[in-house]
Automatic annotation (TrEMBL):
Name assigned to this protein: Formin-like protein 13 isoform X1
Gene designation per UniProt: LOC108497540
Positions in coiled-coil regions: 146-173
Top-level taxonomic group: Eukaryota
Residue ranges constituting the FH2 domain according to the UniProt record: 1-212
InterPro entries recorded: FH2_Formin (IPR015425), FH2_Formin_sf (IPR042201), Formin_Homology (IPR051425)
Gene3D superfamilies: Formin, FH2 domain (1.20.58.2220)
Keywords: Coiled coil
Amino acid sequence: MSLVRCDLLQLINQKIQASKQLQSSQKFVAVLEYILAIGNHLNEKAGKEVARGFRLSSLAKLPLLRGKERTFTLLHALVEQILLHEPDLATFSQELTEFEAVPDASMKGLSAEVDVLRKELENIIQCRRLIKPKTIKATPQELQFCKELKDLIQKYEGDLSQLSKRCDEMKKLYSNVLVKFGEPQDLDSQELFGWISSFISEFRKACAEVTP
């Protein structure tokens, strides 16, 4: 497999692993439940309706919502409640190791790259049909070239088949993640994973500031 396709497969595998971690992380779900509880407590005090859930984009707002003390945010309040009642949840990021870095590629982009490779293969196969020599008139060099081209196409087809299967798995797992967290199916993975990655980073900072 070429370097480009190896890199592409590695990125696809990372997205698959990230989706699997989101699906299986019980601690992250528990942290979200704390956020919902705090939000509903504030809603009740403000005379607003109780919410049944919230968009994950709201995670980015937690470090921005400040109380009377300008240095104390809603994220600090969340950390305090978790450390007070269920301190083990503060390590939720250990279940989401694929989110240590901000995602640098979207699933839509990776899928598009696989489609480009598929189109390239179709073009190569078409070229082979055009240059395939007549067996009777072909020179040894032409026959050798056609054999090598055939072998190359077969290897390319095998590599692309592996990529396509992993790409389909990636999209299916991500779709399941969107369903689990009540997000729209057209939400770009780079956005969703970016929110979670930033939340993990900000949560750690708040923990360090809250912990004596």
